[in-house]
Amino acid sequence: MTMQTITAVAECPECFGEVELRDVMQNEIVQCGECGSDLEVVEVDPVSLELAPEEDEDWGE
């Protein structure tokens, strides 16, 4: 099964700036160039971005 990649421009859900996406796949994490937010590509057709989930630090545990 081949994963679909896309190249597109999407809107950041945090600052509403433009985010350029180049050869990204669904569930990939990208960063907004405007505000620096980590974003998850939740859908590729049509392109949809959401704030990436925060990951807790495990501090080596």
Short structural description:
This protein is an all-beta fold and 61 residues long. It is 0% helix and 49% strand. It has one domain (5-51): Single Sheet (Rubrerythrin, domain 2).
What does this structure look like?
The chain has 61 residues and is mainly beta. It has a single domain (5-51), classed as Rubrerythrin, domain 2 (Single Sheet), CATH 2.20.28.160. The chain has strands spanning 5-11, 18-25, 29-31, 38-44, 47-51. The termini are far apart.
Question: So what's the CATH class?
Answer: Mainly Beta
The low-confidence runs, each spanning 5 or more residues with pLDDT under 50, are none
Strand order of the largest sheet: 3-4-5
H-E string: EEEEE
CATH topology: Rubrerythrin, domain 2
Largest sheet: 3 strands, antiparallel
* Global morphology: globular
CATH A-level architecture: Single Sheet
Oligomer: single chain
Report the end-to-end length measured between terminal Cα atoms: 36 Å
Rg over alpha carbons: 13 Å
Give me the count of strands. 5
Average pLDDT works out at 90
In helices, the fraction of residues equals under 10%
Q: What is the count of DSSP helices, taking H or I runs of 4+ residues?
A: 0
Structural class of the helices, strands and pairings? mainly beta
